[in-house]
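We store amino acids, tokens; thus:
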Amino acid sequence: MKEFDAFIQPNISLLIPISKVSQDTEIFDGTSDDYRIVIDFKLQAKKRNYYVSIISSPHSKLSEELSNDYYIVLIKKDFFEKVYAMYDEAEEGIPHYENTYVEICSDILKYLNMFAFESSKSMPNSEVTIGAHTTLIGHWIIRSILGESVDMRAISSDYSVARAQHYIEQHYSEKITVELLAGLTYISSSSLSHKFKSEMGVSPIDYLLEVRLQKAQNMMRRKNVSLTDVAESCGFSSLSHFSKYFTSKMGMTPTEYIKHYV
């Protein structure tokens, strides 16, 4: 595979192209026994802080034209299906993926680059760390494939922003203000707001609302949960506030969402 820098491990391999790659190569021609995930960095994702990936089951040809800026992750069939089986959705069987577009959280790039670094060095206990990265990458990809049933968001590398994110994730059902978040790391509200918007693309309060919306979606996928309980548990001030925000973001009412997805 002279067209790639290849980082090959027992369950996962990462291929990074270094020259033009023909779609007739064995990786793309449908003869591979592996699950193939192509992360194309030039494609525009709908979600903020996400990349577009193209998922294919074993023996699937690539039918899409790629940019020159992408990573390929090959996952052994047994490992992929073992990890997938750990999730509730596995009860319905593993779908066949034929060049299926999936948006994947941008944090995957950090783990893939760490995987490549560990694979290319003769570091003490590298087999342990590579095994840990392999497991993490496998779960990260499958969680992304499962979509909105799993809560995925990029985490900032800036301490004050990450601290605010962690607090929001743990206390989303409570009253949260920018002043409270800024006080966690002893900076001003304006400094946190500026940093947060610069790093995450939204304000801290908009991020909070996104978290509440995702938690609400997860709750609504369970049976026998009232919308009033969903609104209260996820920190919305009232059912009407929740319904109005949900409809504005999802393009359908909570009731319509339940009928469609549950």
